[in-house]
Amino acid sequence: MAASTFKVIVVGGGPVGLVAAHALTKAGIDFTLLERRPHVVIDAGSNLVLTPVGIPALGQLNLRAPLDAVSSPLGRIDRMDHEGNDLGDVQLFSMMKELIGIAPRVISRHDLTRVLYDTLPSEAQKKIFGNKKLSDITSTPTGVIATCADGTSYEGSLVVGTDGAHSLVRDIMRKLALQNGPSEQVNAEHPFLTTYRCLWLRFQRPANVPEGVTCETHGPGLATQLFTGEDSAVAAIYETMEKPTTERPRYTRADQDALIERWGHIPIIAGEGKLTLREAYNSRQESGLVSLEEGVAEHWSWNGRVVLAGDSAHKFTPSTGAGCNHGILDIAALVQQLNAICSKAPNASPSREAIDSALQAYQEKRRNTIVAECDRSSKATAAATWQNGVFKFVDKYVMPRNAVTRFFIGQAAKGAARNPSPNFNFGSSEVQLGKKEAWTASPVMVRAH
Ligand SMILES: Cc1cc2nc3c(=O)[nH]c(=O)nc-3n(C[C@H](O)[C@H](O)[C@H](O)COP(=O)(O)OP(=O)(O)OC[C@H]3O[C@@H](n4cnc5c(N)ncnc54)[C@H](O)[C@@H]3O)c2cc1C
């Protein structure tokens, strides 16, 4: 059981922040979660694929059954080029099921956040506050004060920034480091680089296309990924930008229309359910155009007072479905460290030095894996958008060879079995994952969604 005086302020109630609420509750660590939107359950955004990276950890939080009830398993990936020519299918998902024991599942952001919120004990739900936009963090001799735009402030021992890719917590951490900390703890002002923009669309699943279908269209400058769920279909369209940027471009509805003007003729479902991007766009229920930042922050914490997790610490292209799944594992590793130091001093708050060491250990445990996974994701997007002749060759001729997929998944499973995976089982009640479920980072060169 954790120290009663240690308190975490979680900033950001996206999927990773909500998983933090579960993990902290499970570890008996007090927390307050501040979310700038009115509520943490959101009915917006693209769908997500939960992969064997994140699913076992969610299972340890007893979330697997409620998430399974509102998500769909994925079958094979059908692939074609911009002209609709078959590029060969990839049996990635069924092989994951066969070799690892877990099949990836697609879920809407609404259902994911709803399940994560609804399954929290009511006492934990009362610690979550909407309409609380963080504006500043002050470090004090005993902890931190998080101030919100509405003038309210919250005291705690540590701020956990789960406030996404454009993290204010990360910016404040940088400011604090520049003001007070040793220079080597200062992150770059813009740690992420954007090479692609992504249009995502949600529309009614076409009646002649079954649930659980994954279709991808690959070719120079643009790739699409489409998943069908029970009622809806969601497509993500990755477009190579004219020039990579570290700035944050803002997009309007006119930018979405312009992208459709450029690429509307591209097929996103082949064969019987044939559908072009323009047809899907015209029948959309919801859409958005976002930058796909990529990168890993150099420093994930500052001085035992502030720490980053999820997209605030690292941002992947979504091609391998890794961002959120790895954010979940960040929380597992972080809360394990916090639980360990709290358990050593059950009636007092751990010292700043002890918290700082725990945060360093957390980064050490996660960062190398994340750098490798970010690179893998980047290569997957580069291959799908045929960034050069080598990527095009691999995408057209190597990827469809299921023996290759099988080899990489097999290697990944073996590697994962050798490494102890971070998990949410704290203290003496620790439960070991089954061999097939002992899946950490996936050294898979292929697309996971
Ligand atoms: C098109 C697309 C498809 C994707 N597909 C997948 C996939 O299949 N699988 C996968 O694992 N990942 C996927 N991702 C990535 C995934 O969406 C992110 O990794 C995930 O959402 C990160 O969660 P997070 O909680 O860290 O950040 P976010 O989801 O960005 O949540 C951050 C939260 O912080 C809040 N916030 C921000 N600033 C403040 C502030 N100042 N004060 C208070 N609150 C604040 C925001 O309102 C938000 O609720 C995809 C991404 C995109 C764009």
UniProtKB/TrEMBL annotation:
Signal sequence extent: none
Gene3D superfamilies, alphabetized: FAD/NAD(P)-binding domain
Domain of life: Eukaryota
Pfam families: FAD_binding_3
GO molecular function: FAD binding; monooxygenase activity
Keywords: FAD, Flavoprotein, Oxidoreductase
Claim: Transit peptide is one of the keywords in the record: no
InterPro entries per the UniProt record, alphabetical: FAD-bd (IPR002938), FAD/NAD-bd_sf (IPR036188), FAD_mOase_fung (IPR050562)
Residue ranges annotated for the FAD-binding domain, each copy included: 7-369
Family: Belongs to the paxM FAD-dependent monooxygenase family.
Listed name of the protein: FAD-binding domain-containing protein
